[in-house]
Amino acid sequence: MSIPADQIRSFRNALGAFATGVTVVTTRSEESGDVGLTANSFNSVSLDPPMVLWSLAKTSKALSTFMTSSHFAVHVLASDQEALSTRFARAGTDKFADLPIDRGVGAIPLLTHCSARFQCRTAFRYEGGDHMIFVGQVEAFDHWERPPLVFHAGRYASAVRVIKTPEAPSDAEPDSSFSQDFLIYLLGRAHHQLFLQLRNSLRRYGLSEDGWFVLSLLGVANNRTLDELGRLLAYTGKGITYDLLASLGAAGFVKLAGFYDPHARVELTDAGRRVVIELVAAARAAEDHAQRNLDDAQTHVLKHALRQIINDSQAVSPVAVPSLEGELDE
Ligand SMILES: Cc1cc2nc3c(=O)[nH]c(=O)nc-3n(C[C@H](O)[C@H](O)[C@H](O)COP(=O)(O)O)c2cc1C
Description:
Strand content: 15-25%
Number of strands: 15
Number of domains: 2
CATH class of the largest domain: Mainly Beta
Pfam families: Flavin_Reduct
Protein name: Flavin reductase like domain-containing protein
Distance between the termini: 52 Å
InterPro entries: Flavin_Rdtase-like_dom, NADH-dep_flavin_reductase, Split_barrel_FMN-bd, WH-like_DNA-bd_sf, WH_DNA-bd_sf
Keywords: Oxidoreductase
Bound molecules: flavin mononucleotide
Organism: Steroidobacter agaridevorans
């Protein structure tokens, strides 16, 4: 029985609901040399003996090589190997050009920097409709602590651990409050709680939050004009004022070259630089503390979502705010 033509897309979509990892399967023969392709049909079969399987479209250019070769290697791709997946999913190109390659059993090509690698002897081949199913007995394997690349609903994704909903904070408002689930409330609260730890360090130097922003901007690139600093601070809704600059100058943290006008340059003094180094260390410690229960993938997704919000809200903001590009690093 075949699926009616008008249901093929919906069958594909239903299959796409099953999230998988992404692998590249490779082998070689004297005639074809190294061959390989991206495959997400990989699965484990047996622990004893150790066996895995994957399936290959009968239309694949690599079919005859896989049908005759005694061994193949399955590479489980890491989250930063999307480009490798795209490369091996493109037929008719030299997929191995300029790639660092190791050699495995039967001289099969082994790719590097993946999450796991299985070198297999081809144990069985089965007909599977328009695919051939290959079952391999694992003869050697490697595993590295790298987060995996995920494929779901036709797109690449990252694996993020399921987070247990944390207990509501002890000072939570009664259930009737709708603000507890507001993004703006959560972002604001997270900011204030994180900044609380930094505020003690600021107090020690008699610095306001605005003063710290100015010093940190000069810490990234010293000797900026007042105009530049004003534009970089515009997103806070405050900008730079004479009083703010005067207080930083009086504390010996900055020096103003010339008069207070938009083109005058502000320079961090040695004392100012020392304060920036100490406060950046305190900020890093607060950041580490905030991330202690998040894994790399969660942090990556959170930062990505926050950047998206920053860029989107920039478009509708009443003040001209500077782009995030180039101002922050990871
Ligand atoms: C995420 C992903 C998963 C894939 N999984 C398979 C698979 O399991 N089996 C298969 O035959 N093709 C699969 N493909 C398609 C092949 O990688 C693609 O058709 C490739 O061009 C085949 O190359 P070849 O004709 O040079 O062998 C997949 C492609 C992608 C992007």
